[in-house]
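Moderator note: this is an archived Q&A kept for reference. The question asked for a predicted structure of one protein chain; the sequence and the answer are reproduced below.
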Amino acid sequence: MDFNITRDNGSDDIITALQTYGITVCHDYLEDVTEIKEECEKIINQEEEASYLFGKVARIGSAIGNQDTNPAIANFFNQQWMFNIYYQYANKIPNFNEIFVQHDYRNDRGTSRNGVLHFDRLWTLKYMLYLTDVDKSSGPLSVIPGTHLDGSFLRTRATEEASNEYEQIKNWPLVDYPELGYTEEDIVPIEGKAGTLIIFETDLFHRGGLVEDGNERLMIRSHIRG
């Protein structure tokens, strides 16, 4: 088994993939993303371009908090199995979830922090749903599978060395830890059609890709922590 699964795979397969690779991808999770996409387009159209260099991003709160205003989004990310996976994998009761809508369509303002290969400074389990077809030209999530174990060690050590000062935690593997020997050639783009669901833990080395001219990536993701 690799990190790709289907809707027929159960929680044990998801956990195994996360433990082995730090990521799992279900390419056929949703056949129709119309309702969620419409809610996301409404949200993102109300946003102004600000500090996010690749386009627009909106932070919209928890799944329950969106029940009245964005019911399709709320129902999708409030599925009990998502919280169960967190509990089984992290061995913690989830007590935090927050949703982000992201539209990438610019490449003329440089690279933001999430465009550099990194592990997150605060460990999180993320559920990412593509709402447009995403290939290499559309800025896909890109990862080095299996690096979550290195990331866990580095994050723990770097957090201690930085005395828990968040901004001082070194989390760029290719820049801060060249001795590990990872290169750009190790990075795998996660391509998929609209409806592809990606589950990954953020000790995994990952980044967002650069969108080429005339392309876009619309997606939504939920962050879960305990």
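Archived answer notes: The radius of gyration is 17 Å.
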